[in-house]
Specification:
The chain is of the alpha/beta class and about 325 residues long. It folds into 2 domains: about 5-220, P-loop containing nucleotide triphosphate hydrolases (Rossmann fold); about 225-315, Magnesium chelatase subunit I, C-Terminal domain (Helicase, Ruva Protein, domain 3), CATH 1.10.8.80. About 45% of the residues lie in helices and about 15% in strands. The protein has helices at about 5-20, 25-40, 55-65, 80-85, 115-120, 120-130, 165, 180-190, 195-200, 210-220, 230-245, 255-270, 280-290, 295-300, 305-315, and strands spanning about 45, 70, 85-90, 95-100, 105-110, 130-135, 135-140, 145-150, 170-175, 250, 295. Strands 2-5-8-1-9 form a 5-stranded parallel beta sheet. A two-stranded antiparallel ribbon has the order 3-4. The longest helix is centred in the first third of the chain and has 18 residues, at about 5-20.
Length: about 325
Amino acid sequence: MDSMLDRLHEVLLRAKQEVGKVIIGQEEVVDKALIVIFTNHHALVEGVPGIAKTLLVRTLAHVLGCEFNRIQFTPDLMPADIIGTNVFNLKSDEFTLAKGPVFTTFLLADEVNRAPAKTQSALLQAMQERAVTIDRVTYPLPKNFTVFATQNPVEYEGTYPLPEAQKDRFMLRITMDYPSREEELALAQRMLGQDSPEAVLALGHVNPVISDQELDTLRQCLQRITVRSELMDYLVDIIRTTRTHGSVHVGAGPRATQALLLSGRARAAMAGRDFVIPDDIKAMAGPVLEHRIILRPEFEIEGYTVPEVIQQVLREVAVPR
């Protein structure tokens, strides 16, 4: 690899090490979050309450030298509460912009499905164009603007399911599971002393590895990672097979093709390679496709699940040699 790709690989490894000082376990989750950040996309994070979703994003923001904001979505949240509004200033006799929490680099949209569609839609322009429009004036957001939207996978009462068009804007669906027994025991032991995860972050024991500006520069290095034409055919065939599979009502669209390509390339960089292999594509197929595929009702009744169907698709598509 060339020097810039070496630098990217080094930064990714150091970022994982620094995040590991706070987040116990969850290595795959951290990997996927870094892939989302370094491909300049967004992630839908699912996990039960108390699994450290907020702490993960806050830690990533600190390690990568970026600003962090959090929005708690509730049924009474209004679009202006997210993007901001113009407020009349009596002293200056003019309107001034009061920016909302969306004007940040890393935004945690906590329990995004608790807000109605009108409020959820306030994020659509920000996620797609990295800009927001307030009173017909468009304001740019930071280049590295990234949304981590969380959902509780168990509790659905009083929620508003995300429309398919909005879910499709999330590059990956990241599932945070319970820690192992050893990891939970380590967490409990740390809580007895002065090195609880929150304290480690608050006391400055976690070091930033890059700045906001360098993040954008390193992101360009991913373009140097080689993707063979056979692999391009392979990943396109995977996406197209989801549209014709017998158990699938709605398959993945072209945005999934882009997401699978970019995430596979970022995974290769994380492994220290300057080329993509079939295992990169297979590993990222689940996180890319799980929130984009809708099964036929009769197959859901029979107990089929989206992850099982994705594995069937991967077995059907021939792997390039």
